[in-house]
Every structure is written in structure tokens, then in C-alpha cells.
Write a structure and sequence with these properties.
The complex is a heterodimer of chains A (320) and B (243). Chain A is mainly alpha-helical. Chain A contains 14 helices and 4 strands. Chain A has one domain. In chain A, helix 1 packs antiparallel against helix 7, helix 4 runs antiparallel to helix 10 and helix 8 packs across helix 10. The model of chain A has no long low-confidence stretch (mean pLDDT 93). By secondary structure, chain B is α/β, with parallel strands linked by helices. Helices cover 38% and strands 25% of the residues of chain B. A 6-stranded mixed beta sheet of chain B has the order 6-7-8-3-9-10, with helices on both faces. Classes of the chains: A mainly alpha (320), B alpha/beta (243). The interface between A and B is medium-sized, with 17 and 29 residues.
């Protein structure tokens, strides 16, 4: 990436984040809550897209990492009374470790096999959540008590159940994940990652350890997803087995495809549009998934590269 | 020019695919600074043999030594890091990246090995593109380059690695006659700094470039010698004419 392209991407990202910062002052309360949820899901999708969009690996099991972060953070608060930062730290370590192990195994496969193997591991994760019901309370899930969602911050008390606080925490997390990926992609490692995506065999024959590079991105991707899961659990105070289910893996894929795989801001756009669409449609009809399915088919047919992918192709080749 | 210790040598290397003996016990030595051509009829095992050298295919048996080190079990990317570069028979580039970006990836590989802060990646990228005459196309998307230029880009990526040994797998396939003449000059230029191993069907290219020629048939080494010796060798003539 040239220096000027990097500056443009950095500027665009900062503008979007600034807009999100200002948005909290104009949005009504219900939409603040929705936007918070969108931003956390966007972090999850940024993590998913790091793998799909920049090294070309389609995982069907990313709910596993989201749930890993969610339960690592939530259970350490619920059962062991960890402070919020400590619980978040635990979730990062747990999801990094899990993605290292799962990546080391699944990256021995490619294409369809990779999709199937990641899916299988995610199902194991889902069943494990149900199996250890003594800890997780299975399908019903756990609600974090209000006392556990506060922490002392000097003379003040930080209450993460508060709508505005929650919004800004989600925003910081989104900014951090976008910044991390942006700087990763700027350097040699990012260049090698996209080289693997475009032509794996050639990249290996240029002297790069392709397996190690893929594993590195897999861990980055899994950890970002885990961080999103932890934020989701702590900010909204609920841990449920649904978050480990196949549906969440698929949603990350849908958000990414809609916004544009391999674009930095595509995941955010995909999440915003899809979540808003589900929200509106579910008011009108109970068959909203059918409508969304049709919209997706149309998108794939007419905009196979997603919204930002199409914009990049036609008008803005510098988009990262 | 030939030193006594070979840069690359193989001892009894074999590669069997089920019952097919693609490479069946080849002892081979390549000396620093030479241009060596490997020729042979279709299906003689030429591409399989160089795949064993580059590490893209694992040997079933035998050993490969490069620059004094046993590399038989090294994965391909580590052999590239040791100095064996391979350019593909079928053009194998990054079609959606610019020509400069294609070369830049190879330059990054070299930079990772050098660990020298003074190494200027932009200069190295430009130098490799200039060496093959693609400097004025550097911003073009590789996939939109003319076929001949794509072949040159492929070579530029090999060059950017600054290898000790450059393996070219049918580099002139699909090139026009004037392009081939340019290519001959390019390979002679490359040979000043690297050893070149070339698989080639075009006899004009082989005869005008190679210092020595190795002839493969049915997975074995049939003959080896200077272009004149090979041309006059009755076994080689028989293998090619099927007599």
C-alpha cells in the first residue's frame, strides 16, 4: 500500500469514528442501544473479515470464538467475581489460546474442508456450553447481576449498564480493532497476507511460511471475535448458548458479504444495514428471514463484492 | 568457472506416484555459475524433477544437497530462503496486484532474510523491474499485462529474490520470436550473478544458452554434456525420434 492510500484510509476511518462519536448526542435512547449492539457485532465481523477478506479463509465456526470470549469474561465475573478489566483480559487470553489451537489443527485443511472442520469445532463448542450447564446454565443462560457490572474508577463508579457509557466502550473497542487491522495491513505482514489470499502457491515459492502467516491471522481474527464476545456479554449482561450457535457464525459471514469482504469498513456497513433491516422487517412480518434471504440473493447476484467492494472496484481503488 | 563442489546435487532421488515412476533414481550435479538445461520428451519427469529440487514435491527416496547442506526434508519456503528460486511453467503471478506490487512481495522475502536496515525495498523493486524491461509498466495490473510481459514479470519476481539458483520451468513457452531473443539476453545477464537451471523445449533456446545439457527420459538421466555432445549423442537422438 502506498503512503497516500494509507493516509486516505486512515482519514476515512477516523471520520467514520468521529461521526459515531457525535451520533450518541443526536440518537434517541432506543437507537443508542441498537448502535451499541451494532458496534460490538461490527468488531466481531471485523475479526471474521480479517480472515476471510485478507487471507481468503472462510471459517464457518467463528461463533466459537465469540462465545469463548463471552463465556470467559462472563463466567469469571459470575462465578469468581473478577473485576471487569480482569475478566476482559481473561477473555482475550482464552480466545487467543483457543484460536491458536483450533487454527493449528484446521489450517492443515483448505477450502471446503476448512469450512467443514471449523464448523464441526464450533458445534463442539456449542454442545460444550450446553453440556457444562452447571456452569453456564445451558440454553437458559445467565444474567450478570447489576453489582457485577460496575467498577470503581478512582472516586467515580463506572456503570457499564449505563447506555452512554456502554456506547462509548463499544466505540473504543471498534476503534481499536479497526486501528489494529489498519496498521497490520499497512506493513509487510499485511502484504504477505493478501499475497496468500491472491495466490498461496506463489507466495510459498517466494520464501514465505504460509502456514505461520495464516495461523497468525487466524489468531488475530479469533481474538478480535473473542473481544467482541466479551464486550457483548459484559455490556448487555447476558450469557446464552445461542451466541455459540451456527447462526452467529453465519451472521458474521452475511454482514461481511453485504459490506464487502476484504474492506476495512465493510463489516461495519454490513452490520448496520443488516441489523437495521432485521429490526424494521421484524415489525412488519414474522417471516423476515425470508425477505432477508431474498435481499441477500439479489446482493450476491448484483453486488458479489459487497457494497464497499463494489465502490472500490468502480470508484475508489485505494480503499483498503 | 566450474568449481569442484557442486552448488546443487542429488543422489538417487526418486518420486513415485503409485505405480508411476516419474523420477526414478537420478544422480545430478550442478555447478555454480553455469547455465544448465534439462531436456527430454514429454513425460520424461522434468517438471517433477525440478519440483523435487524446489521442494514443491517431496522425494520418495534419495537426498538433495544445496550449498553444502542437506535440504531433502526442508519445506519449499525454506529452500527459497536458502537461495533456490523457482519460476512456474504456467504463469503464476498476483493478477489483481500491480506489477510493482508483485515484485515487491518477492523483495519483502529478501528483506526478511537480509535484516539490513539499509536495504531499500523501493530501489530493489525498481531494479528487478528494470532488469526485465517492465519499469514503464510498473503500475499496470499484472493480470492485464500481455502474456509475454507476464512471463517477464514472473522472472522479475525470481530475480528480486536474488537467488543463488534460479530454476526456470519452460520460460519461453508461448513467447514470440523477438520476445525469445530478448529473453536469451536476459538469461545471460542473470547468469552473471546466479546459476540457472532451465527446462526448455525450444532447442534454439537450449543450444544458444546452455553450457551443459542434461537429458531425461522415463524418469532417469539418459545423457549429460555440452550442446555439441548432446546433439551428436545417438541415445539422445533415439529417445527423441523414438527409434
Amino acid at each position: 500500500m502506498t503512503a497516500s492510500a494509507f493516509r486516505k484510509n486512515l482519514t476515512l476511518t477516523l471520520l467514520v469514528l468521529a461521526a459515531l462519536l457525535l451520533l450518541q448526542f443526536v440518537l434517541p435512547e432506543y437507537y443508542v442501544l441498537m448502535a451499541t449492539r451494532m458496534m460490538v457485532l461490527a468488531v466481531f465481523t471485523v475479526g471474521f473479515n480479517a480472515l476471510l477478506g485478507y487471507v481468503g479463509l472462510l471459517s464457518l465456526g467463528h461463533a466459537m470464538f465469540f462465545a469463548c470470549g463471552l463465556y470467559a469474561a462472563g463466567l469469571s465475573v459470575y462465578h469468581f467475581g473478577f473485576s471487569l478489566p480482569a475478566a476482559f483480559g481473561v477473555s482475550l487470553i482464552a480466545s487467543a489460546a483457543l484460536s491458536l489451537v483450533i487454527g493449528a489443527i484446521t489450517l492443515r485443511t483448505i477450502r471446503v474442508s476448512f469450512m467443514i472442520v471449523t464448523l464441526m469445532f464450533a458445534q463442539v463448542g456449542y454442545l460444550a456450553v450446553l453440556y457444562f450447564a452447571e456452569w453456564t446454565n445451558g440454553q437458559e443462560g445467565l444474567s450478570l447481576p447489576a453489582s457485577a457490572r460496575q467498577m470503581a474508577l478512582g472516586p467515580w463508579t463506572l456503570n457499564i449498564a449505563d447506555a452512554v457509557t456502554r456506547y462509548n466502550i463499544a466505540l473504543v473497542l471498534l476503534a481499536a480493532s479497526l486501528g489494529l487491522l489498519l496498521f497490520y495491513l499497512k506493513g509487510t505482514r499485511g502484504r504477505v497476507a493478501t499475497a496468500i489470499r491472491d495466490n498461496e502457491g506463489r507466495t510459498e515459492m517466494l520464501g514465505f511460511n504460509v502456514f505461520a502467516a495464516k495461523l497468525e491471522m487466524f489468531v488475530l481474527s479469533g481474538t478480535l471475535s473473542g473481544a467482541a464476545g466479551a464486550a457483548y456479554g459484559l455490556l448487555f449482561g447476558y450469557l446464552g448458548a445461542t451466541f455459540a450457535s451456527f447462526q452467529y457464525s453465519i451472521e458474521a459471514l452475511l454482514f461481511t458479504l453485504l459490506g464487502g469482504a476484504g474492506t476495512l469498513l465493510g463489516p461495519l456497513i454490513g452490520v448496520v444495514l443488516m441489523v437495521a433491516m432485521i429490526d424494521k422487517l421484524s415489525e412488519l412480518t414474522s417471516a423476515y428471514f425470508l425477505v432477508i434471504g431474498v435481499i441477500l440473493i439479489v446482493l450476491i447476484l448484483w453486488f458479489p463484492k459487497g457494497i464497499l467492494g463494489t465502490i472500490r472496484e468502480r470508484w475508489a481503488p485505494w480503499l483498503l | 568457472m566450474a568449481s569442484l563442489i557442486p552448488l546443487l546435487s542429488t543422489k538417487n532421488v526418486k518420486r513415485h506416484f503409485g505405480g508411476l515412476k516419474a523420477v526414478d533414481g537420478i544422480d545430478f550435479a550442478l555447478y555454480e555459475g553455469e547455465i544448465r538445461a534439462i531436456i527430454g520428451p514429454n513425460g520424461a519427469g522434468k517438471t517433477t524433477f525440478v519440483s523435487l529440487l524446489s521442494g514443491r514435491t517431496e522425494v520418495s527416496e534419495g537426498t538433495i544437497t544445496f550449498a553444502g547442506e542437506d535440504v531433502t526434508r526442508l519445506p519449499a519456503y525454506k529452500r527459497v530462503q536458502r537461495g533456490i528460486a523457482y519460476t512456474f511453467q504456467i504463469t503464476n503471478i498476483y493478477p489483481t496486484k500491480t506489477a510493482a506490487e508483485n515484485v515487491r512481495i518477492a523483495v519483502e522475502s529478501r528483506a526478511a532474510r537480509l535484516r539490513d536496515a539499509r536495504f531499500d525495498r523501493d530501489t530493489a523493486t525498481r531494479a528487478a523491474l528494470e532488469a526485465v524491461g517492465l519499469a514503464d509498466r510498473k503500475e499496470a495490473l499484472a493480470g492485464e499485462l500481455a502474456y509475454g510481459h507476464q512471463r517477464l514479470l514472473e522472472v522479475a519476481m525470481g530475480l528480486a529474490l536474488q537467488p543463488k539458483l534460479l530454476i526456470l520451468d519452460e520460460p519461453t513457452q508461448g513467447l514470440s520470436d523477438p520476445e525469445i531473443e530478448n529473453f536469451l539476453a536476459l538469461v545471460r545477464q542473470i547468469a552473471k550473478s546466479a546459476t540457472v537451471l532451465l527446462i526448455e523445449h525450444n532447442m534454439h533456446v537450449v543450444m544458444s544458452l546452455a553450457d551443459r545439457i542434461s537429458v531425461l527420459t522415463r524418469g532417469t538421466l539418459l545423457a549429460e554434456g555440452t550442446p555439441e555432445e548432446i546433439r551428436d549423442n545417438p541415445d539422445v537422438q533415439a529417445a527423441y525420434l523414438g527409434a
